């Protein structure tokens, strides 16, 4: 009996020892995949948009030399004409006479009908030239300094599904009654011309900060009052606290709060930045 009790006691000791032994646990460091873009140093601009009206560059009324009766009409409203083309023939007290187009362009107005009288008191027609097309818009005194004559500005005419660049040809030296300065920019027409009288949007760029650190806006992390980005050095995420100078939808100009902590060409995290912490190991992956 004593022998069996001794055996049970020894076995209990072994069992208790086995239960108290903890298995070795390997600490596995989490490596977070991230996407990055390079920090650039450049003049950071914001885009300002102004409403413009498309206008002909020339508009000439056509007058009959003498009153008379229209015998034959050769054009319709909207027709294209060249300078010297005969618009109509009419008989007057001075005999057979012609009304000619004074410039190349389009018949915008036509006040003639065959077998009806033509007078010298009102234009028989109005011819406009829309090549180049003029965009007319207005600027405040502050915005007037953003451009000079000869500069190119971006424009978009949504109604005609057209966009491109227009050359600034005129900036008023004095403000009008509204306190705004008139500006004109010319658009070279294509085979599919933009009609006059449409609304356009003209875009101007204003430099907010020269030689600024620029990063994708999505790289900015906000936690409470803090704003920061993560840069990657030797597969390690490093938090850099920053001030936001100016923000746009795609890119943001920043100023690091500490000197020499960020430089042009550094890689800043643009995907995965919300799930990492300062000093964490990361793995850079290509954008999908």
Automatic annotation (TrEMBL):
GO molecular function terms attached to this record: efflux transmembrane transporter activity
Keyword Signal: yes
Gene Ontology, cellular component aspect: efflux pump complex
Domain YknX-like barrel-sandwich hybrid: 67-122
Cleavable signal peptide: 1-18
Keyword annotations: Signal
PANTHER family noted in UniProt: MULTIDRUG RESISTANCE PROTEIN MDTA, SLR1207 PROTEIN
Protein name: YknX-like barrel-sandwich hybrid domain-containing protein
